[in-house]
């Protein structure tokens, strides 16, 4: 008589039972008997609401796709004898790409006899990696690719983290703009007038107020 290792609906281990008994228990519990490990000896079956299981699995898969972020490989090209201004511009682009969660492929294009000096290319790429180290780390060391030398730098934060951080920074700036100073006293027009009065004027004002109250 075929037997299975039965798992209850809450993950509890029921034990090894005959397949007929497992099917009867599933029917009595208004649940489905689902084989979850067919290659085990004996096979493992679980009591569950299969319709609910499929629905929850679909929801999880949908959420996973929603939260999935695709990392883009951006490219930054150098000449071996690049001037300082152009180099800093390239570094700025790379910092922006890496900060947004994308990878950067740094490429040096050799000309003529420059191919005979690969150590110069390695030094330039290592300098580049050091200049972007605050947001990226080397994923692929410098290597020769035809007439070029390439290196890949990956972001320290993925795109989802980078996006959340950017949103938090934007929210903080907006809050700062909306913040109202409360550490300084606010004077009303009446307070300003009263402060400007001398003692005699205040006395006359009080007499006039009392007279008005008496007439009332």
From TrEMBL:
Asked if the keyword rRNA processing belongs to this entry, the reply reads: no
**Superkingdom, taxonomy of origin:** Bacteria
* Record bears the keyword Protein biosynthesis: yes
GO terms under biological process: ribosome disassembly
Sequence ranges assigned to domain Translation initiation factor 3 C-terminal in this UniProt record: 72-155
Question: Could you name the Gene Ontology cellular component terms for this entry?
Answer: cytosol; membrane
Recorded hits in Pfam families, A to Z, give: IF3_C (PF00707), IF3_N (PF05198)
Alphabetically ordered keywords of this record? Cytoplasm, Initiation factor, Protein biosynthesis
Q: How does it assemble?
A: Monomer.
Q: Which GO terms describe its molecular function?
A: ribosome binding; translation initiation factor activity
Q: What does this protein do?
A: IF-3 binds to the 30S ribosomal subunit and shifts the equilibrium between 70S ribosomes and their 50S and 30S subunits in favor of the free subunits, thus enhancing the availability of 30S subunits on which protein synthesis initiation begins.
For region Disordered, the annotated ranges are 157-216
Its protein name is Translation initiation factor IF-3
Record-stated family: Belongs to the IF-3 family.
Translation initiation factor 3 N-terminal domain sequence ranges:
2-64
Localization, UniProt: Cytoplasm
* SUPFAM superfamilies reported for this sequence: Translation initiation factor IF3, C-terminal domain, Translation initiation factor IF3, N-terminal domain
NCBIfam families according to UniProt: infC
InterPro entries the UniProt entry points to: T_IF-3_C_sf, T_IF-3_N_sf, Translation_initiation_fac_3, Translation_initiation_fac_3_C, Translation_initiation_fac_3_N
Biased composition regions of type Basic and acidic residues, renumbered to the chain: 158-167
| Annotated organism of origin | Glutamicibacter uratoxydans
């Amino acid at each position: 008589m075929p037997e299975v290792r039965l798992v209850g609906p809450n993950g509890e281990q029921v034990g090894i039972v005959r397949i007929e008994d497992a099917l009867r228990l599933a029917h009595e519990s208004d649940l489905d008997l689902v084989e979850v490990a067919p290659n085990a000896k004996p096979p493992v079956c679980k009591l569950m609401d299969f319709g609910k299981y499929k629905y929850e699995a679909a929801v999880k898969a949908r959420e996973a796709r929603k939260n999935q972020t695709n990392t883009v490989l951006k490219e930054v090209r150098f000449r071996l004898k690049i001037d300082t201004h152009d180099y800093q511009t390239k570094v700025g682009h790379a910092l922006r790409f890496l900060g947004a969660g994308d990878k950067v492929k740094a490429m040096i294009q050799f000309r003529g006899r420059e191919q005979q000096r690969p150590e110069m290319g390695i030094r330039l790429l290592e300098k580049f990696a050091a200049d972007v180290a605050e947001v990226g780390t080397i994923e692929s060391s410098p290597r020769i690719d035809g007439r070029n030398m390439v290196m890949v730098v990956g972001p320290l934060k993925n795109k989802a983290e980078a996006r959340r951080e950017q949103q938090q920074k934007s929210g903080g700036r907006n809050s700062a703009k909306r913040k109202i100073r409360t550490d300084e006293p606010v004077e009303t027009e009446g307070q300003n007038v009263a402060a400007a009065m001398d003692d005699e004027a205040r006395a006359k004002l009080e007499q006039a107020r009392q007279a008005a109250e008496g007439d009332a």
